[in-house]
Amino acid sequence: MQLQDILFSQGFGTRRVCCGLVQQGRVTVGEPPRPATDPTEDLDPMGLVFHVLGERWVYQPLAYLMLHKPAGYECSQKPGAWPSVYTLLPGPLRGRPSGAASGVQAVGRLDQDTTGLLLLSDDGKFIHRLSSPKHHVPKVYEATCKHPVTDQQIERLLAGVVLDDDPRPVRAAEARALDSHRLQLTLTEGKYHQVKRMVAAVSNRVEALHRSRIGAIDLPPDLLPGQWRWLTAQEVAGLMAR
Ligand code: URA
User: Fold this and answer.
1) Would the pLDDT of 98 be above 80?
2) Which of ligand 1's atoms lies nearest the C-alpha of 206?
3) Which residues, at least 6 apart from 89, have a Cβ–Cβ distance to it below 8 Å?
4) Does residue 6 surpass a pLDDT of 90?
5) Which of 67, 75, 109, 111 is the best mutation target for the ligand 1 pocket, counting ligand atoms within 8 Å of the beta carbon and taking the most?
6) Where are the alpha helices (H) located in the chain, listed in sequence order?
7) Considering only CA atoms, which of 133, 143, 213 is closest in space to residue 180?
8) Is the pLDDT assigned to residue 99 strictly greater than 80?
9) DSSP 3-state percent helix, strand, coil across the chain (nearest 5)
10) How far apart, in whole angstroms, are the C-alpha atoms of residue 161 and residue 168?
11) CA quadruple 208, 214, 217, 220: dihedral, nearest 10
12) 211: burial class by Cβ within 10 Å (0-12, 13-18, 19+)?
């Protein structure tokens, strides 16, 4: 694969821009780095390490990553009042030429004020599998509530509550109190504002919400709000195998 095509596939701009990056001496390939001078140089992209403007990249045919979403960010490409989570990612991840859309897309959305684990990818199959209600991928949330959490509220969340947009009850796969005002809920669906609406349906109110787990993936304690990292091949395979 030509170097300029490798750079293009990884989101560094149009082929013309990528060609220019190489011609201007802004790209090195391999480790230890060797300056690249020929945009048409033929390279095996698999596992290729390269640097663009001093930043290290490893070729990824498809991108799979996790982000620790901070509060105050919207999961939309075109946000309203708040900045977009996509601004927390490096430009190339937003510029990857991926099908109809451009760049990685969030797998489902978290509310502006919700924090925690968000997965992103440019693999349509991966996004579909994780967001499809058919696959029942469990997602674990910690909700800080305005009023004390009671056994009766937990029983009702497990038995099922009716939300305003659907007569069929939605139930938590698991629910337990973490302390007097904190509730851990595991959901296998992804309805709009689902945790907040379920908690409201049992006469309490979510004051803060955090997602700590999707499938078998936990938000790592050392991934700070606003930081992202690639998913490992095992993590991706585990999520796809569900
Ligand atoms: N449920 C909510 O109410 N909000 C979220 O952000 C996620 C789940």
Assistant:
1) no
2) 3
3) 65, 67, 104, 120, 228
4) yes
5) 111
6) 3-9, 15-23, 91-95, 124-131, 151-159, 194-201, 233-240
7) 143
8) no
9) 25, 30, 45
10) 8
11) -10
12) buried
Q: What is the pTM of this model?
A: 0.94
| CA atoms of 8 and 200, how far apart (whole Å) | 47
pLDDT tens digits, residue range 157-187?
999 999 988 899 999 999 999 999 999 999 9
Taken in order of first residue, the domains within the chain and their CATH numbers are 3-58 (3.10.290.10), 64-133+222-240 (3.30.70.580), 138-214 (3.30.70.1560)
Residue-wise pLDDT for 37-60, tens only, equals 999 999 999 999 999 999 999 999
111 is annotated as an active-site residue:
yes
- Strands 49-52 and 166-170: what pairing? unpaired
Rg for the chain (alpha carbons), in Å? 21
195 Cβ closer than 6 Å to some ligand 1 atom: yes
Q: What is the largest CA-CA distance in the chain?
A: 69
